[in-house]
Specification:
The structure holds two protein chains of two kinds.
Chain A (H helix, E strand, L loop, with lengths): L1 H28 L13 H11 L5 H13 L14 H36 L4 H15 L2 H15 L13 H30 L2 H8 L4 H14 L6 H18 L5 H10 L3 H29 L11
Chain B lengths: L1 H6 L25 H10 L2 H19 L34 E4 L2 E4 H4 L17 H37 L1 H16 L2 H11 L4 H28 L2 H8 L4 H37 L11 H10 L5 H29 L6
Antiparallel strand pairs in B: 1-2
Helix pairs in contact in B: 2-12, 3-5, 3-12, 5-6, 5-8, 5-10, 5-11, 7-8, 8-10, 9-10, 10-11, 10-12, 11-12
Amino acid sequence: MVKYIGKRIIYMFITMFLIATATFFLMQTLPGSPIQSYSKLNDTQKAIVEKKYGIDKPKPVQYAIYMKNLAKGDLGTSFAFKGKSVNDLLASRMKPSFILGIQAMVFGTIVGILLGMIAALKQNTFWDYGSTFFAILGISIPSFVFATLLQYYIASQWHLLPVGLWNDGWKSSILPSLALAMGPLALSARFIRTEMIEVMGSDYITLAKAKGANGFEIAFKHAFRNALIPLITVLGPVAAGLVTGSLVVEQIFAIPGIGEQFVSSIMVNDFATIMGTTLFFSAFLIVVIFIVDILYGVIDPRIRVAGGKA
Amino acid sequence: MKKDIEQLPQDKFERIEIDSTKAERIEKPSLSFWQDAWLRLRKNKAAIISMVVLVLVVIMALIGPHLNGHDGATQNLRHANLPPKMPGIEKLGIMDGVGNLSGEKVDLYAMKKVDEYYWFGTDGLGRDLFTRLWEGTQISLLIAFIAAMIDLVIGVIYGGISGYFGGRTDDIMQRVVEILIGIPTLVVVILMIMIMDPGIGAIIIAISITGWIGMSRIVRAQILKYKNQEFVLAARTLGTNDSKIIGKHLMPNVLGIIVINTMFTIPNAIFFEAFLSFIGLGLQPPAASLGTLINDGYKVMEFQPYVLLFPSIVISILMIAFNLIGDGLRDALDPKMKD
């Protein structure tokens, strides 16, 4: 296990290094320059600005400097927000994204689990078809379509909740969280349904029934707990989906989060911020996948992470 | 009691001979794997309905742009921002050309003296949205199909080689995959799209650059499962060469799972294309795809919700149909692999 974890950590670093390198060189080939908007400057002034941001040096030197700073956790200085470091920029935008992500995840998983359980316990009835259909909708309908629907009806037509922005406390987080929650909801509902059906057919459930345990007790005490373990595996895809979703959902609801930051920095060619955000997202996803793999092995000893020995 | 049985009339009984030559006869017609799968798929109503719907959407994407005599690129500012109006349905009170004008319901067609019908209305530049919608669907489907095909070809070849030859080849190839799989798809897609000229080609390349990894892993796992089974061993013993073993003995067994996986790659590609276009990185105007149309619609959602409505419906229908067909195929082709 320790050897496995060590190997995985080394891979994580290699992956991050490759992403950082690839991102850096891709950024250099980008058409356009971050100081394009300073076109009023004459050549001497341009040279001064370039020197200030360190983009007058040859590319390999820039790369070495960037990697050295990165190793220290310094993501550089933003071009668009003058003088602000990317670290500060990300830190200031972390909170809304974090709150939305957590709310969407908690709400989505709980409702998803309930739907999945209802579907499994009342297999092949109206309830089953209803919640399965709901799950298919959740997986199929793109988050931006769902988000615009929510925004149009609930906020703009019926005036129930704020249309966007992050200035109305908890109220302004409801709609974006709902839009993000559809993915986790649908995934966990489908997953719990299949797991529950499988568990309900196993011998120990038959035994529990034979001993006269009531339906409720069987469902929650025996079946549910066992069906829940594999749900950890969907955490990876769910996290990836939340990041993807946050890019558009934050844009639609004008939430000052990291996703919105990423999209707007692409639009203005802000190299440092694009790279910083890319690395942030990558690190987040890599760590989530790593934790999921480890947790899975710890919780269910039947799964051998290293494989082969079973 | 025993006597009662003996008293039963003997002529009521008939002796049956078991014909040992017929013991091995097969009563039901033998079905190939695909016939069997089709029988099972046919019972899945959701999948069948989805197939019909999908075929209809594809047909509309092909003939839709030529149906109403308008052309999706012609701008006619006199006809800008017209609401949907369709002959026949207009009498029902929907799609009758009545739209909002500074808060009041007005028949905009009468006001602007437009005699033509724009079935799904027009956008801010007076382009016919019905034509543009189906042109966009065409582009979206095209991108999704090509991306899925590229994923399929690279994934199957890579996974096949890695799984079949094993050993050091497999080791090296899998180390590469292990590193690539850590890179979030979204990040790669966005980075690739930024450095290439925007267009269909760029989107396809961006989507397929990491898209094949999932397919290659699945194919590799399957090949590993089958390559040491007896029938392959037998073929090898008889001196069959590698390419024939792969083509004749392994591929037919892996095909089911490849088909299933492709059915899930296509909606994924549709989603990514629309996603990129929605955040402004995808196709550039005047080209239309479902993503750009939704983006256009989103900007005027408050005043002309119909611009957003129709492309949203089409993309949702496409995604639902592909997912349901994928689910159906999975149940039909591989009953063991449910979810």
